[in-house]
Amino acid sequence: MPFTTRITVRFGDCDPAGLVYYPTLFHYCHVAMEEFFAARCGAEYARLVSAERLGFPTVNARAEFFEPFVYGDAAEIDVWVSRVGRTSVTFEYRLRRAADGRPCASATLVQVCMNLDERRAVPVPEYLRLAFESGAE
Amino acid sequence: MPFTTRITVRFGDCDPAGLVYYPTLFHYCHVAMEEFFAARCGAEYARLVSAERLGFPTVNARAEFFEPFVYGDAAEIDVWVSRVGRTSVTFEYRLRRAADGRPCASATLVQVCMNLDERRAVPVPEYLRLAFESGAE
Amino acid sequence: MPFTTRITVRFGDCDPAGLVYYPTLFHYCHVAMEEFFAARCGAEYARLVSAERLGFPTVNARAEFFEPFVYGDAAEIDVWVSRVGRTSVTFEYRLRRAADGRPCASATLVQVCMNLDERRAVPVPEYLRLAFESGAE
Amino acid sequence: MPFTTRITVRFGDCDPAGLVYYPTLFHYCHVAMEEFFAARCGAEYARLVSAERLGFPTVNARAEFFEPFVYGDAAEIDVWVSRVGRTSVTFEYRLRRAADGRPCASATLVQVCMNLDERRAVPVPEYLRLAFESGAE
């Protein structure tokens, strides 16, 4: 079952067209991923970064934006893992408007498990692999 | 011939891993597009938005990130239009590290010509279509 | 009694020093103000902006930063109004680390009530004045 | 003589009111300071952070915003140091609209010299002190 989190669109997230500036939608995905780690992986992403010096930078992104989010909206975001490789993880994101459930965006992000000190790909730790796979659809 | 612009990586663009936070790379693409409009289209994007109430929000994004940008880098970004539809434009972006020319990222963004007051797709104005096509590879 | 809201520090909020990039602390204050409007003023700030075309841009800012917020922290923010003028409002913000209650920052922001279409100061609407004064210490 | 740098207002810097979101003006000050370090201090701020593990986080901020920057504007920013203490430096910023020279904002930021690994204040290195004082008005 996908994990779901909610993000309120903020004034500063929106551009002069009144829409959420689209790079900010990727920030929303990252925030959703941070919540996913806390809720499903037994690991605060913050602790992963500071204590284990692991991160999951994005190496490939595909996204579609069906309808804009505007100021006043809240986004409901589903997050799940669709594939776990040796050193990479594919996260899926579905974003919909909270008020009416209309789909607004989807994204598939391939993120690589990186040792932040050496800045090279390393195998996904086993406890994260298990958590990712149990959260997969 | 693609248009090229240069963006200096800023302290505030980088995350605790020391890398440019990846949503910010899409912001860099948007900045490069704004420079492209000024240089190649005879139209400041700002004037387009405020006077003509036209914008080009992104509806589809594909991107690859080969190597991270870090604080201290500058990005050189090529921008060109690979396809002009009736109401949409496909922009191509290639980002490389200025110091050594190494490719760091590429992105293909489909952007729709939108009337910002009515928030609906409208045909790409003829003078922009001509500018886009002359800038195409 | 001040209104209190909580903001989780996000990966993308932090800089290569691992601290919340200080301009982002002002963003946190703005988010707290948006929550204050919703909770105490009977007015979503979003509705104010879009329907009444009113905003409260900042004209004067004073802030102190005692201790940095780092990734992994959450901020608890008190917000209240200390003074209501004819066209301006003084907001007070106190930010502390949620985990241990340590004060991290305080800010006093003078914000002017602006008609966003004409971009000029206008009197604070009476229903907001009442709400601001009842929330004052 | 103050150091002057120029920043183009970007689409993503502006809010639904069409104005530069005010926390972003502090980001502009930080960018101007980074340029100041490169031009006047013989030290890229990036190198300072990564090689010497020194930073200058802000501990006190005072700012006035006289006129908003809007999308389409460019900001000209003067930066200079008005005071150098043992472990702190006071930076002054004056922001004006490039097109007509109108003053838009000013800021006085007290920034402390910090060892980023130990997160404590340390004396300002002598070569920086000399550079700061020669750039003072």
Question: What does this protein look like?
Answer:
Four copies of one chain form a homotetramer. Helix content of chain A is 26%, strand content 37%. Chain A is of the alpha+beta class and 137 residues long. In chain A, strands 1-4-5-6-3 form a five-stranded antiparallel β-sheet. In chain A, a hairpin with a 5-residue loop joins strand 5 and strand 6 (103-112). The mean pLDDT of chain A is 95. Chains C and D meet through helix 1 and strand 3 of C and helix 1 and strand 3 of D.
How would you state the average pLDDT of chain A, rounded?
A: 95
State the major sheet of chain A. Answer: 5 strands, antiparallel
Overall shape of chain A: it is elongated
Note the quaternary state here.
Answer: homotetramer
- As a percent range, the share of helical residues of chain A equals 25-40%
